[in-house]
Amino acid sequence: MRSLDLAREVCERYHPGLLKALAGVPYAERERPGGPVIGMFRAHGGVGMLVPAAFGGHGADAVQAVAVQRALGALSPSLAAAVTMHHFTAAMLYSLAGRGGRLTSAQLAVLHEVVPKRQLMASGWAEGRTQANILTPSVTARPVEGGFVLTGAKKPCSLSASMDWLTASVAVPGPDGRAELALALVPAGSEGMEVRPFWGSDLLAGAESDEVVLQDVFVPRELVVRTTATDPGRLDDLQSAGFVWFELLISAGYTGAAGALVEAVVDGERGTAGERARLALRLEAALAVLEGAARAVREGLAGEAAVAAVLVARYAVQEALPAVAAQALELLGGLDFIRAPGHARMAGVVRALAFHPPSRAGAAEPLLRYFGGGPLELA
């Protein structure tokens, strides 16, 4: 399909050879626990897509990033889901790095190593907790001499076996004693960090989404990004930017998976021309909404307006994809179901978009208030 071919061209531009390498591995192998796809992503320079050129990366924009994620999702939904966590974390951190004085020299040194050393950053934000905002702290931080001691857990935590850094949202005591948001950069393998089995589904099993437990893990003060009295908005823009990137990228990966099914129907000339056209139109309509939101972000849409735009796109995609996948499977037919089990697994995968926060039910009232002229306040 043209739209998926265009996405592949963008992916090839940023990660030459990656798609060919992935396609050379059977689907079941790509999606199994401990499979090779994350290592292949790392080997083909995947970590640098959203990293600015000043730090050795590609500095891709939102539209390009959505295209790359679609291309990856069409081959390995597990990989697309896993690297969403790296990419949205990179987008947040490097947005701060581009503003003088907002990161310490130690924090900047970490960011300068990511691309040259092909390091992956896992997300210890609250994604995965029922009804939770992805940016709600799931780890507490106790001040000690020279830094903080972190305690808590993230489950599921994609990239748990391959991460070089865990970036964790933490609650730290503010000047008035009340908890405030901060961001800790935790080296993988730190004393007190443990990865425990968690993911029990065959779907998305290659994303390494197990539990990461922090039990009294020390993090130096210079590796914790905090709000300060002189810069009270330091993390506000970080939260909005991270939320926007997460929703765009996670939706794009699942759209790619559905696109692979539609492509199989169209290329195989399954069903009537009218049936194929209706199927493709439904997918392309969802894609247009997602790309429209990405384009608006690229052109400067920010804050609440950007969050609302990407949520509208995400829920439109979420509603469309299960129907697209079911129709595609029906048109592919029973023999395909028997002989190509990867298609059935792809169809199951797209339903997982509904399980990423915020849930549609949880966002309903905040969005209604926003549509009516009020603020957009997600819990």
Automatic annotation (TrEMBL):
* Lineage of producing organism: Bacteria, Bacillati, Actinomycetota, Actinomycetes, Kitasatosporales
- Where does the Acyl-CoA dehydrogenase/oxidase N-terminal domain start and stop, copy by copy? 37-93
Pfam families linked? Acyl-CoA_dh_N
Q: What is this protein called?
A: Oxidoreductase
Q: Which organism is it from?
A: Streptomyces albireticuli
A Gene Ontology molecular function term for this protein is: acyl-CoA dehydrogenase activity
State the UniProt keywords alphabetically: FAD, Flavoprotein, Oxidoreductase
